Amino acid sequence: MEKMSASTAAIALLVSSMVQNSSAFYLPGVTPQSFGKGDPIKVKVNSLTSVKTLLPIDYYKLPFCKPALAEGQKKIKLDHENLGEFLTGDRIEPSPYVLRMQEDMFCEVVCSVKIPDFSALNEKRNKNKNPPKLNRAEKAISQEYHHNIIVDNLNAASQLDDGGNVKYWQGFPVGGIDEGLVYINNHFNFFMKYHPVENETGKHRIVGFVIEPVSIRHEFKTSAEGKITIINPVPSCNPNRKKIVHTNWHAVVNNNKGLQPAAGDVLFTYDVTWEQSDISWATRWDVYLNMANVVPAKVHWFNIINSFFVVAILSFMLAAILVRNLKRDFQRYNKLPTSDEEKADELEDFGWKLVHADVFRPPSNNPMAFAVMVGSGMQLLFMGFFTIIFSILGFLSPANRGSLIIGQLVFYALMGSVSGYITARLYKSFKGKAWQTATILAATAFPGFSFSVFFVLDITAAFYGSTDAVPFTTMLVLLILWFCISTPLVFLGAYFGYKKDVLEYPVNTSSIPRQIPDQEWYTSIHFAMVTAGIVPFSACFVEFYFILSSVWMDQYYHVFTVLFLVFLILLILSMELAVLFNYFQLCCEDYNW
Q1: If you count Cβ atoms within 10 Å of the first and of the last residue's Cβ in the chain, which end, N or C, has fewer?
Q2: How many CB atoms are located within 10 Å of the residue 9 CB?
Q3: Tens of pLDDT along the chain (593 residues)?
């Protein structure tokens, strides 16, 4: 008991240290950028996202201030994006906001925008009991869309003071609804943190980026030259102010400035505050990865401990059942018969021994499909393994936007050789003759199905005007990756697989198939599939939840060391359950495993 508790404590300590240490690491492939005092810093905008619609939209689809276009430029150009960013719906573009290192700014005017106002029309619609007509901004606010502004490759984080416990969240809302009024956040407070570079004098690096959105109903007028003057401004926007102050929510409330409706003339302004921080550049992503410990690290390693005990219990059950039954069978076969009745029993087999000549019989229902599925499964298994390994090393980190998707696609294409080799060897052992068809199916069946689903979803996203819709050039890159890299590798693997000798089985297969007796409902293949799937899922569902949250809820997943342990536990459980259920099935004289 003491040994068991000591080993459990050691495992808990190991996993806990992995989780805690995984939040602070240097990101390979990400070059730090240093700025001197007064150096300009680019502010970029990404697609607007919503956890309500799950459909990101282009930032400038809404009436926001746009940057000045260069001479001869007709539209805003996208920032350089990789394949993974396009597939995840990112559309990074320049913005009109200007920052300078260590230079505070106070109520800088960006531009004024006129948003359609349907208030008069909605009064008539209300009388007729029709739903109100909303402009684009009001629709986006009602659907809870968020800004995603980027500075020096850092996403803007919003800060929430929950009873003294400061929490951070990615992005900040476009606006909100207060007592029926749909308002827009038209003032941004940039809170920037920097850290001096030790080996570069006068140089600094950005290590923190938080935005506080504020809605201010500015009263302003525009001159003939286009100069904007704020009438009755808040203290920070007053050019004649005696004391330099930054804009904050309390100042807006004290000056009786109401919320800015998401309609009519809207003036956009912003403040910038710089603060030196002790945070190092290598750990600046911690606030995004931890999000103020919204999900405690112990949740992950508690899941690991739980899964470990499931594996231990299942291993003990498997060992006890197999040892007990095999020992009984071996005693029976090694026992010397002493009577005619025992000799008759000796000649009669029962249980799994009855079907020993049918165990390795090829599937009667489409053996080619079985071989292709096994090959595709091995391709996915190796893809997942290498993706997790490279993620642990930091090459597929959140700072490299789109790198995780690119890594998955590249590894899947390269593992086409594994799919071709496994498919060929298995199909050859089934004495299949149509090896060309099997190889083509290995290269096209699963990728073709996945691409068809992806294409339908892409058309749906395009119909809703979402940035999730992949451009034609990106679609072409995927097809090139499929047909010019993955498919040739599948044929290469199949070539080596077919050159190998046929798999040798420990027993010979009889020429006449044995009749399978009627089976009970709990020994059917469908019941076994459901039962055998529940246990592995229970071991990995916690990490599965966090992974899906990172996909759909705009969160970051970074504990790849824990994911690797869960991956190994999942493999062990799957192997043990396969052995256990196959043994039970063979004992029921059903050799169609």
Answers
A1: N
A2: 10
A3: 344 444 444 434 434 444 444 443 444 446 788 999 999 999 999 999 998 888 999 999 999 999 988 777 788 888 877 888 888 888 999 999 999 999 999 888 999 999 998 877 777 777 777 888 889 999 999 999 999 999 998 888 887 655 556 667 788 999 999 888 899 999 999 999 999 998 888 899 999 889 999 898 888 888 888 888 888 788 778 777 767 777 777 767 666 678 899 999 999 999 999 999 998 888 888 777 765 455 566 777 777 787 788 788 878 877 887 777 777 766 666 665 555 555 455 445 556 677 777 788 888 788 899 999 999 999 999 999 999 999 888 888 777 888 889 999 999 999 999 999 999 999 998 888 898 999 999 999 999 999 999 999 999 999 998 988 988 888 999 999 999 999 999 999 999 999 988 888 877 777 777 777 777 777 777 888 888 888 888 878 878 887 877 777 667 777 888 889 889 988 988 888 888 888 888 888 777 77
229 residue type, one letter: T
Phi, psi of 412 (to 5 degrees): -65, -40
- Beta bridge partners, 173, equal 146
Q: What is the DSSP letter of 574?
A: H
Write b or e for each residue in 221-238: b if 16 or more Cβ atoms lie within 10 A of its Cβ, otherwise e. eeeeeeeeebeebbbbbe
Per DSSP (E only), the strands in 285-412 are none
Residue 45 gets the label, from left (phi > 0), alpha (psi -120 to 50) or beta, of: beta
What does DSSP say about strands 175-178 and 172-173: parallel, antiparallel, or unpaired?
unpaired
pTM passes above 0.85: no
Q: How far apart are CA 323 and CA 338, in angstroms?
A: 26
Residues paired with residue 276 on neighbouring β-strands, in sequence order: 194
Region for residue 28 given its phi and psi (left: phi exceeds 0; alpha: psi -120 to 50; beta: otherwise): beta
Q: Is 542 helix (H, G, I), strand (E, B) or coil?
A: helix
Residue 429 in contact with residue 500, Cβ under 8 Å?
A: no
Secondary structure tally for the chain: helices H, strands E: 16, 17
Q: What is each CA distance from 178 to 48, 143, 172, 181, in whole angstroms?
A: 21, 14, 17, 5
Q: Could you give the residue ranges of the DSSP H alpha helices within 204-277?
A: 249-254
Give 501's DSSP letter. P
Q: What are phi and psi of 183, to 5 degrees?
A: -115, 160
Supply 243's token pair: 């004391």
Q: What does the H/E/C string look like for 470-537? A: CCHHHHHHHHHHHHHHHHHHHHHHHHHHHHCCCCCCCCCCCCCCCCCCCCCHHHCHHHHHHHHHHHHH
Q: How far apart are CA 259 and CA 269, in angstroms?
A: 14
Buried b (16+ CB within 10 A) or exposed e, 36-71: eeeeebebbbbbbbbeeeebbbbbbebbbbbbeeee
User: Do the bridges between strand 154-155 and strand 149-151 make them parallel or antiparallel, or are there none, so unpaired?
Assistant: antiparallel
C-alpha distances in Å from residue 86, one per residue of 43, 150, 170, 310: 20, 16, 20, 40
Is residue 433 within 8 Å of 319, Cβ to Cβ? Answer: no
Do residues 231 and 267 touch, judged by C-beta distance below 8 A? no
Residue 171 DSSP symbol: B
For residues 9 and 3, give the distance between their C-alpha atoms in angstroms, rounded to a whole number.
Answer: 10
Rounded to whole angstroms, the Cα distance separating 209 from 194 reads 9
